[in-house]
Structures are given as C-alpha cells and as structure tokens.
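Exercise 7.
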Amino acid sequence: MMAIVVGLIFYILPAPSQMTNGHLGLLMLALIVVAIMLGFPTAFTLMGLGTTFTFFAYYSQNPATALNQTLDLMALRAYWVMSNDVLISVPLFVFMGYLVERSNLIGRLFKGLHLATASIPGSLAVATIITCAIFATASGIIGAVVTVMGLLAFPAMLKAGYGIRLAAGAVTAGGTLGIMIPPSVLLILYGATAGVSVVQLYAGAFFPGLMLAGLYVLYVIACAKIWPDSAPRLSEEDRRVDLPKFAEIISRTKTRNVLAGLLLALKGKRNKDVPMRTLLTHLFIALLPALATALLMGSLYLTATEPEEVVPETLQAMGIAATVETRIEGGLEEPEGSETEEAQPAEAVQAEQGSAAGEEVKPGERRPIPTWWWITLAIFLFILLIIYAVLTFVRLEIFKMLLTSFFPLALIILGVLGTIVVGLATPAEAAAMGAFGGLVLAVLYRALNWRVLKEAVFLCAKTSAMVCWLFVGSGIFAAAFALLGGQEIVDTWVKSMDLTPIQFMILAQIIIFLLGWPLEWTEIIVIFMPIFIPLLGHFDINPLFFGLLVALNLQTAFLSPPVAMAAFYLKGVSPPHVTLNQIFLGMMPYMAIQIFAIFLLYMFPGIGLWLPSLVYK
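Solution. The predicted structure, written as tokens, is:
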C-alpha cells in the first residue's frame, strides 16, 4: 500500500522545477499517509509535518517573519482546541463508559439475553450483537466493548460449537456499533470538524445504528438457518433456568402462568414457607410492563390533550387581522369575498376546527383525545395480552435477570440520549449526567473501589489526551494545507470533473471506504474530512446527512485489514488456536452488510433525517 501511495506521488506531482505551493500541500497529504502506515504517532506526525510545511508557506511570502508566524499558528490552534465546547463531552462520555464496563453488568446482561433468545437460531450470536449494541450505547468505547465481549461471549460460543468465523464476526462487528450508535466519540469529532450540531448528529444516528444492528442479527439468523452446524442450538442444560422453591410448587400444583399462579397463591392456601411479601414482590415485578405502559400512555395523553394557549385580550392584534380591524374602525368596509382565511380571528378558526372535529374546544380546556392515541393504546393492550398469556415463571426469572442488568443501563441511556434529543441538555451536560450515573451504578453493584476508580480516571485521561492532541495536530495540518493552496487545488480538480451530487457522494464514500483499510477513523476524520466538507456546499449536500453516511462507512476502519483494530482486540483475548486470518474472514460479510446499510440510508434518507426534523423543526 505504501508503494502504491509513493508511486502515485511520483505520477501525479510535476517535476520539482514546476512544483507550486499547492503541490507541496498534496505532497504533505501523501507523506502523512505514508508516515502513519510506517507506525509513527498520528497526532505528533500531524503536528510535525504541519509545522514544517507551514514554515515553508510563510517563508515563501516573508522569510523574516516566517518563524514567528508559524509559532503563533501552533499556539492559536492549540488554544482553539482548548476552548472548543463540543470536546468537553469526550472525557465525560469516556469516563462513563469505563465505569459501566467495570460495574459487572455486561455478564448478567449477556446471560439474560442469551436465555431470552434461546428459541431463536444462532441465539448466542444474536445475544452477543444485542449486548454489544446496548453496551455501545452506554459506553461508546470500541476497544472496551470488543475486549469484554471477547472474554464473555466468544468462549461461550466456541464451547457451544459455533464456528470460529461466525463467532468472531459477531463479536467484532457488534463491538464496532459504538462508532454509529450515540453517544459516539466519532460523531462528536465530526461535529466539531464540520461545524454540525452534535445534538442533531446524535438524533440522526440513532435509527441508522439500530438498523445496522438489526441487519447483523438477520445475517446471523440466516447463517444459523442455512448452516446449522456453524450455530447449533443450545442444549437443555444451557437453557435451564433454576426456579425458586415457591415458583416450582405453584407451577406444579396450580399453573405455570405467573399472574394466575400468584393470584391463586395470594387468594387460596399458600405454602407456609413463602411469606406474603415474596408473593407481592413477584407480582409487582410481573406487573411492571403494565405499569410502564400506563405511565407512557398517561404522558402521551397529557401531551395530546394539552389545552391551547390563551392569548390575553389586552394584546394588540398584528398582521392581516389587525389591518382588517383598523379598516373597519376607520369607516372602510371590506368588499364581499375579499376576507381571506388568514384574516379570520383566532377564535373563529378555533371554532371552525372544533366544529369540524365534532366538538367545541374552548380556550383553556383540554383538547379531545385524538384517534392515534386510541390506536396506540389498543396496540399496547394487545402486546400486554400476549406477554401475560405466555409469561411463565421461567420467563419471569429471565425478566428478573434483565431487570437487574438491562434496565439500569436503559435509565442511563434514556437520561443521556433523551435529554440530548429533546433539547433539555447539551451533550456536555448530558455526558456529565451519564458519568455520574456510571459512578452510581458502580456503587450500587459494589464494584467501585480505589483500583477501579484509578483505572477509569487514568484511561479516561489517556483517551481524552489522544483525542485533543489529534485535534491540535489536525488543526495545524489543515491550516498548513490551506496556506499552501492544497485545498484550492482539490476543489478545482473536483469541480472540473463536472460531477453530479450523486456521483460526488459515491466518489467520496469510495475514497473513505478505501482509506479505512490503511487508516483508523480518527485519522480519516481529522485529516480528510476538512477536505471534503468545503465541497458539500457546491454539490448542495446536507453536512448532517453526509456525516451519517461517513459514520456508517467508517466502521470499515475497524473491520477491514490490515488495520482492523477490532480483530487485534479480539485476538488479544481469544484462545491460542484462533488465528488472525479466521477473525478477518469472519468480519468480511459484515463489511458487505455495512455497504448495504449505506445504500439503504442513501436511498431512504428519512432513516437518518426524520428524527432530527421531528425534534428540531
């Protein structure tokens, strides 16, 4: 690959006597790729090359002030990173992720999910992907997700007889979902680089991330159906769930249905060894889905029937209605038929709307319940009916496992992403809430001690320093590239190709896909995104939509050899007989799935743009 890059340098660049500053910028861009592939630290290589070529750019203009201008630029770019409010959320999200990782929730979550999905083909791999998606939502740290699932899920799948390729692909592909699913550090860096709202990026990336996880699950189920030997069903011993003594007695003597059994035990003669408190506690746990549904429908009812805002009569009317009123008061009559709908008073419009709906709505009173609320209620009641019809004591025990593992994470996820999406908090404020929630979880699960806190703080500082130094280096590098005129040459070249927006989008995604082979996503974001972003306005492409496509595409940086970091993370914790080539081969189908997901997002932009347009009208 380095030979190809060096060969392209000699082929594209003119002779030294004909080189301009713009060509020096392209040479700097090629050299940074070669230096990174040689193994030099990315951030300091960016700073070194950027500073050197910045000095060349200033020296060609005024040799006397070149050194001072170069040093000033370095200080200003470093200060720009330090004063960037968007980057404040990076260390907080990272700290939250490391605390969640050390709260010992993931093992319980994986066990509960693989028991809950035991009847699905390839249940262990399906549970692995779902666990990775949930863990990625609560963490966003790719290395942590792949490493933890490599220790938990990968040996369990190999022990159950799963093929190495299928098991490795499920762990590595599921672990990289943190790139797309919020809170993603990649989306924060893209937002800071492109000047796009991180809040809207989070809202836009939510459904594409779930879509990608769903495609992974469908692929695993299809593989288990087509090649049953690669994903055998769990044995009865692995699917067995131990019941409490009272649950065994009720299941044997009365009924296996939870609601009916508990109500009969409460009403009739109970086992003397089972206190009333135990029965009531389990009845309350069984009724939690119904209580959650009641809470959700109640909040939807309050929102749907919220009364209209009453405008005080003392306020002066403005607009067309005010003009009509002034003309009448001044003795000027409106000609018949000239009164427009816009000129009608608000009370008349409300009266017409109320009569059209069949009910009269007075100002300050609640609006009638809309039809969609009744339809939603009917759907939820039907789902609850199915749940309670099939809810046995075995499924209740599985639900209790999920209750102690998934729901604490769900509260953190809702607290972080919910407040961001609805606009109650900035990403930095929501990240602070998430970090505090991770701290509380570690305390509640008795996983917080001095060693855990020390490791979390150290790893958080290390990751945050890497991100911030990358931004300092990319700032200096981008400034040097612009000073030399490299951006102008690229813009002129792309515009001279007379591409349509679709052709430019395809070309950009192919280049990013190929760059994901030798480079990591951080390097692609900080080095190459500043080159693509100025061209988006020329082709009338929404930077938010482009960022979602890039986020989907950049997962190839973790799944494509030779710099497939997810494979190296898994290899570091896998048994000795698992080779790196087997892991690479297991990841290849998921790269094809990602390309298909990019195609779906491009053909149906509403997958990524519907939620931001709904929340941020």
